Amino acid sequence: MTRRAAEIRLDALLRTACDVIAERGLANTRTADVAQAAGVSQALVFYHFATKERLLSQAFAYAVEQDLARLDAVARSAASPLVKLRRMLKLCTPTGRPTSWSIWIDGWSESLRVPELEKVSRRLDLRWREDLAAVIADGVCEGVFVCADPAGAAWRINAVMDGLAVQFAVHDRVISRRQFAEWIRLAAARELGLEPAQLDWSAPAQHRSRRAERTQPDAVS
Predict the structure, then answer these.
(1) Residues 180, 101: contact at Cβ < 8 Å?
(2) Does residue 69 share a domain with residue 45?
(3) Same domain (yes/no): 36, 82
(4) Range of the domain at 35
(5) In the chain, fewer beta carbons within 10 Å around the N or the C end?
(6) If DSSP codes are grouped into helix, strand and coil, which group holds residue 62?
(7) Quick check: is 22 in a domain?
(8) SS (H, E, C) the chain
(9) How many domains does the structure of the chain reveal?
(10) What is the pLDDT averaged over residues 168-188?
């Protein structure tokens, strides 16, 4: 097998493993399940990953990297900090089945028992918070946000998001997508001296500005 062919095979195995994990969960996924779904032998799976723990860890990282790549693209774009924050919050809000969030939550749970997975989960979790903190810090420097501790604000916003995501993904109909979005915007706005309307990605730009202006206190004459 050439190196290129091996890379293609590895990528295909990771994509298949992600599909199996999404259906069965990390705890219930066996190497045999992945091999069967991919139409290959277990020996080939072990050739690429050596252990079940490594397979699960790399598959988790592969799935999560798709989410983080989109967030990274926003964080590194030429948009203003406010627009970046709005787009990042939108990307983290479920729009259909919460498959991405389910994989994150499953990864956190299994990280309690699988050290190799915990290392991957921690690294990816911190990477997302660092991106968020950097956007907040840029907004503070530009005078758009009011925040004395961007890193702390990123942790707190993320904690609210994680908590809501667990409830949304695990308990059907406990909260709606609309509530998820509203509460995330409210948490971020309170941290950064904004009005929630300024973070409403569903409203046209002129409506966001007008709604934000209406909520500001009257100027002192």
Answers:
(1) no
(2) no
(3) no
(4) 1-50
(5) C
(6) helix
(7) yes
(8) CCHHHHHHHHHHHHHHHHHHHHHHCCCCCCHHHHHHHHCCCHHHHHHHHCCHHHHHHHHHHHHHHHHHHHHHHHHCCCCCHHHHHHHHHHHCCCCCCCHHHHHHHHHHHHHCCCHHHHHHHHHHHHHHHHHHHHHHHHHHHCCCCCCCCHHHHHHHHHHHHHHHHHHHHHCCCCCCHHHHHHHHHHHHHHHHCCCHHHHCCCCCHHHHHHHHHHHCCCCCC
(9) 2
(10) 93
pTM passes above 0.70 = yes
Residues 17 and 108 in one domain: no
Residues in the chain: 221
Alpha-carbon gap, residue 202 to 182, rounded angstroms: 11
Matching residue, tokens 């904690």: 159
Residue 207 corresponds to which amino acid?
H
The verdict on 79 and 162 lying in the same domain is: yes
Check residue 51 and report its DSSP letter: S
The two tokens of residue 94 are 């479920």
